[in-house]
Amino acid sequence: MHNLSISDLTIENYEKYRELEHQIGRLYFMYKIIQRIVKLGIPGDFIEFGVYKGFSLIWLAYLKNLCGLYNRKVIGVDSFKGFPEETDYWKFGIFEDTSYDMVNEIIKKSIDYKDIVIIESWFNNSKLPDIFQKETRSLSLIHIDCDLKKSVNEVFYLIEPFLKGTQFLLFDDWGIVEEDIKSCFDTWLHNHPSTTAKLFSTTGITKYYEIKTD
Length: 214
Hints:
Elements (H helix, E strand, L loop, with lengths): L10 H30 L4 E5 L5 H12 L7 E5 L21 H9 L7 E5 L7 H8 L3 E6 L4 H11 L5 E7 L6 H13 L4 E8 L4 E7 L1
Parallel strand pairs: 1-2, 1-4, 2-3, 4-5
Antiparallel strand pairs: 5-7, 6-7
């Protein structure tokens, strides 16, 4: 505190430390969630919707192995073409500075790459449900790293067959356009009365839930 001066109080520093809090916070809480998955004996693989350049995908693989879950897959789904539509907040194609091949090369440099499966696809691909059925039988952790209301609703449709028992539903970008993600989640819960959600942790941007489906 005593090392701060008025010159440090800039929007640039605010954004920098906000992003730092987001990155450290989300990894810490991912670790705590995986520890809880181990403690509760929850079966199932991990899946991430919205891979971008593979940062959190690699961390999920590392953390699950750190917790002894060596036999779990980490599945990543992304079109690698950026956002499929434009909104008042987001531009069409933003985050397109990536590719399937680029992320594969990044992942191969990770010691945990053998656990990672990447599916290159838009979320509304009619073939995805069949692909998921071949890749996994159950899910314990679902990481939603996408910002569009349309995309989040497509994710909810895709995970429908895998809702069972206790699982963790992680929203990475809840706080970017909060009304969109909150609206999606509230509507989804309303339409799924057999599923309850309890907030496990939050940062300035993320919200991670423990959900239970009867």
